[in-house]
Design brief:
Blueprint: H1 15-49, H2 58-82, H3 88-97, H4 103-108, H5 118-135, H6 155-169, H7 185-188, E1 193-199, E2 209-210, E3 218-222, E4 226-232, E5 239-242, E6 257-261, E7 266-271, E8 276-283, E9 289-298, E10 304-311, E11 316-325, E12 346-349, E13 360-367, E14 378-387, E15 392-394, E16 398-401, H8 410-424, H9 429-439, H10 450-469, H11 473-492, H12 498-515, H13 519-546, H14 563-578, H15 582-597, E17 602-603, H16 610-640, H17 681-695, H18 705-729, H19 733-761, E18 774-775, H20 809-825, H21 832-844
Parallel strand pairs: 3-8
Antiparallel strand pairs: 1-2, 1-4, 4-6, 5-7, 7-8, 9-10, 10-13, 11-12, 11-14, 14-15, 14-16, 17-18
Helix pairs in contact: 1-2, 1-3, 1-6, 8-9, 8-11, 9-10, 10-11, 10-19, 12-13, 12-15, 13-14, 14-15, 16-17, 16-19, 17-18, 18-19, 20-21
Amino acid sequence: MIRDQTGSITSEKLVWPLRLTWAGMWCERLTHAFWPVWAIVAGTLSVLAFGIQDGLPIEAVWIGGVAALGGSLWALVAGLRRFRRPNRGDALARLDAALPGHPIAALADTQAIGVTDAASLAVWQAHRARMAARADMARPVAPDLKLSRRDPFALRYVALTALVMALLFGSLWRAGSVVGMTPGGEALANGPVWEGWAQPPLHTGKLALYLNDITQSRLDLPTGTRFQLRLYGEVGALTLTETVSNRTDPPPASDPAQEFEVVQSGTVEIAGPGGRQWKIVATPDSAPKITATGEISRQAQGEMAQAFTATDDYGVASGVATIALDLPSVSRRHGLSVDPEPRDAIVLDLPMPITGDRTEVSETLVDDLSKHPFANLPVTFTFAATDAVGQTGQSAPLSVTLPGRRFFDPLAAALIEMRRDLLWSTANARRSAQILKAVTHLPEGFIRNERAYLRLRVLLRDLDAAAATGLDATRRDEMADALWDIALLVEEGDLASALERLRRAQDRLDEAIRNGADKPEIDRLMSDLRDALDDYMRQLAEEAQNNPDQQMSQDMQGMQMSADQLQQMLDKLQQLMEEGRMAEAAELMEALRNLMENMQVTQGEGGQGGPGGQAMQGLSDLLREQQGLSDESFQELQDQFGGQGDQPGQPGQGQPGQGRQGQGNRPGTGGDGQLPDDRSLAERQQDLRNRLEGLSQGLPGGGSQAGEAGRQQLDRAGRAMDEAEEALRNEDFSGALDRQAEALEALREGMRNLGEALAQQQGDPYGEGTRDGEAFGRADPGGQRDPLGRSSGEMGRIGSDRNMLQGDDVYRRAQDLLDEIRRRSGDQTRPDTELDYLRRLLNRF
């Protein structure tokens, strides 16, 4: 309490803040001085509660105990030396330091001068009153309990965490086992007593049992349960007898520390004062069981899916699926007739739940093995599950055909088959090369993807050379990867344009209908067709809306169909396929294909007029001649490696690097009535490069985005031509083919961009569809029609709001169609599927 000169209490409000601050200082200094003591004590108690001392030699326990006791004494002495007992003045000074202006110290001051001066005394009293008001605002000061500077390694937290874990999962009663390890410990205990624990294996998830609390005489325990017993008191007063461990050299029955594991059913008895007897029933840990459930399936992209169920009494730890080739079930024909090269079985890890109970696991193994040599071949699936103790259970072998990606394009399917033959055995190299030569002999109209064709020709050259010298496994795998990439390129096509994407989707779905694809593949292909058709129709609609004054081609004048009707056709097509009516689905697919053909690009009118059109025509001619030069370069490459020598009936072959004569109507080789070109391939490549540079002066679309993109592609084509010329001069025909393929690709892309620029420059909205002087069908000049000849409906809907036929003609046309259907239905020579279809039409109409 603070008193003034008269001895009266200045402020009662300082009493509790001062007391609390003082108590906080006691906590702070005790913590700073003695934290090592309670850290050592907590760590020692956690070790004892976990029973670690029971599994150590008594010497180690003694050493640990001495170290813990010595450390505690050292920490206690060091703490006493550091500890300073806080007094009331220390607490008052800390409280005063927390207040502005140190008011408590000011209240304790006395006036030194001017005591007799009334004015000076008045000022002094005012000052004390102001300081007293500030002192009334005092609040307790929190103690500083941070120990990070004194304990940089956070040892106090380690000890505290260990103690909490010991209290949760251990028992402080187990600390009493130390008493029996001390000299005279038996005398310290009040008579003979015992203590015991039964710890089931960790993987069972069962809790440890404190045997002193178990009153029933029967215990059902898992095999492997560990018994720990401690006998206290005079040696021999208590003895242990057990028949569950099947030990061959048990310790003396009176040994104070007994440990053993349950391996069989039997009894455990502690004889003596306070003893106990239990009948132990050992529950064996059974091996897990696993079976495949359902049939193996192929997903849309070729991934295989196989469901399985695994069970175990305490939980499945892991599992694997082994896939081995079922050689006796393989149809040994064609490329599979030779003996296969040995291959290791496929081993896949089974999916397991991350959390939850694993006593019964039902999952699905999903993996993409389309590129593996076993894909689409007979294999055996063997599932195996393992539990925590290492026991393994296997399923019966499951004989299936390993699902893989299906290719519907005939060329892509042939490439995949040759890839399979190469991976089956390198002895198939020559046969595969011969088949690929036959497949690529006349590529016109068969191989539509130019990049795929050029890559296939280069691969064919390498395969031919490897077949002659011997194909090693590394090179074989590289060629297999290349064949896979080429097959994907052929199967998926060039998706850069909506029209090409639509054609590709139609071809793949048509092939799937003929080959009997399963439902997931049909659904995926139908989705691709819908997306491609939506994209294509959207582009046509945008062009029609932006350019209503363009004329529509004559072959599309009567073609009117709404987008809803197209979607209804697709829905009907999918319904027929889902119902298994593949013949009708094929007919509807053919009708849809014919409809799409009427939306193909047609030659534009006046597209070649003006300087821009002339430049586009020159680029088109240049593209054809570059293609012909690339064909001749490939022929030179075959001759260089002896792949195709001179054959009777063929024109004479020139020397490598020289032009060929008598090549027919190939551009630049005497076709179209021109004389054969006797220049070397390098000189002709240089001439094409010079012509490209000359055409760059009159290109359309200067300053537009499409025009600049086209010019960049032509620059890229020019660089590729320069590199091809250099390769030809060095007789590096393989490198020349790669550069020529790049030049062809850049030329096509540049012409597409320039075609768009030219169409925009001439006010043609069909720039996106313009390529090589071609344009989509024009709209009707007399009205607002889209490229399909359809009038815009209300609210901007695509399609006509009118009937397709008006007037009396509609009834005559309907009667003609009905008569034709009746006539065909009466022709019994027609296929049953067609007759059934015609009868359904008659029943409907």
